[in-house]
Amino acid sequence: MAGGTNERRMKSAPKLRTPLPDGLTKQALRDMYYAMVMTRLCDDRAFALNRQGKIPFAATCQGHEAVQVGAAYALKRGTDWLVPYYRDTAMAVAFGVTAKEQLMCLFARKGDIFSSGRQFPNHYSVPDRNIASISSIIAAHVTHAVGMALAFKMRKEPRVTLVSFGEGSTSEGEWHEALNFAGIHKVPCVFLCENNEYAISVPQQLQMAVRNVADRAAGYGIPGVLCDGTDVMATYVTVREAVERARRGEGPTLVEAKCYRAMSHTSDDNQLTYRTNDEIEALKGRDPIPKFEAWLKERGVLDDDAMASLRAKAQAEVDEATDWAEEQAPPTEDDLYTHVYAQGPLA
Ligand SMILES: Cc1ncc(C[n+]2csc(CCOP(=O)(O)OP(=O)(O)O)c2C)c(N)n1
Ligand SMILES: [Mg+2]
Q: CB within 6 Å of ligand 1 — which residues?
């Protein structure tokens, strides 16, 4: 409930030998694992291509895969909407974005479905998969998400909007305006904070004087809950509760998933200027992928061979997508105004 959040309330994954978490089949668990692994490989590929001088820019989501996939699976695909931010590669993959689509965007090719090669990488816009377009202006999209949720409520459609953002974005004015409005009007929106402890180079204690972003929910009369964002099942269970609450008409929830950023903010940043090697090394112990692997194995969902074959499949998908996307044509001068004006300004 609102206010008074503390570490003791952090949720952990359901205990072993209990039934599978509500709403998840074994196939869904395999798909979640595949989405996490494929995203990690795409991420590694993006940074390698950047260092080879083949793509201009990459933004990582390493350390965020569990929170993103867990949250995406808590929603109803084809009904609910995602309003993600630039770090949400795994969330987009879990909502149906393919390696080819991801690589076409990274190479900024004309056939890129998000923006015809016109936007920053990871600035998704996939209306046919219920993924809204991304705002680079941090927290601006939180107001868009609340507007979308208000429309669902006014039209009496049983849909929920999930909007994600980093902890740094919660210091922006628009974030507070959005939560205030959402609380008053009880819109069906889940606010998901992916707290990776940094806003570029600024650590959390220099971004806010509260210990948890979830504590901020009390100011808007909505529940604020914490979960371990490196644990895909913990995130799934927590976000699902928030989604169900929203769908019942009880209003929004702020979920704070504690995760971490394994790499520099983007390919343009060098985290060694503000983080020690020891700090970066210690993060490896929090990796969400081995954590999920251990859970899947103990549950008998996937054994070592099955996981190895899914990893090989994901690697082949990313390799093929890279070669294919690199060969595709870039935008031309004729594309200059595509997706910018309904009619070109020179028409
Ligand atoms: C309004 C605005 N101010 C500043 C920036 C520059 N900027 C881009 S990302 C970022 C940090 C955001 O940190 P956080 O919200 O914690 O997300 P993270 O990148 O850590 O996932 C900043 C300050 C921006 N894009 N928009
Ligand atoms: Mg952050």
A: 87, 136-138, 165-169, 194, 196, 198-200, 261, 265
Q: Are 214 and 4 in contact (CB under 8 A)?
A: no
Find the mean pLDDT for residues 133-156.
Answer: 96
Distance from C-alpha of 20 to C-alpha of 74, rounded to nearest angstrom: 14
**Helices 99-106 and 304-327, axial angle in degrees (round to 10):** 40
Distance between first and last Cα of the chain: 55
Ligand 1 center–CA 206 separation, angstroms: 14
Nearest-atom index, ligand 1, CA of 165: 15
Copy the structure tokens of residue 58.
């990459």
Q: Provide the CA 108 distance to its chain's centre, in angstroms.
A: 21
What does the pLDDT look like over 54-70, one tens digit per residue? 999 999 999 999 999 99
pTM: 0.94
Residues 6+ apart with CB under 8 A from 103: 42, 45, 318, 321, 322, 324, 325, 326
Structure tokens at 251: 């209003």
Q: Which fold has domain 25-131+143-199+256-323?
A: Rossmann fold (3.40.50)
Select from 302, 239, 218, 294 the least CA-distant residue to 30: 302
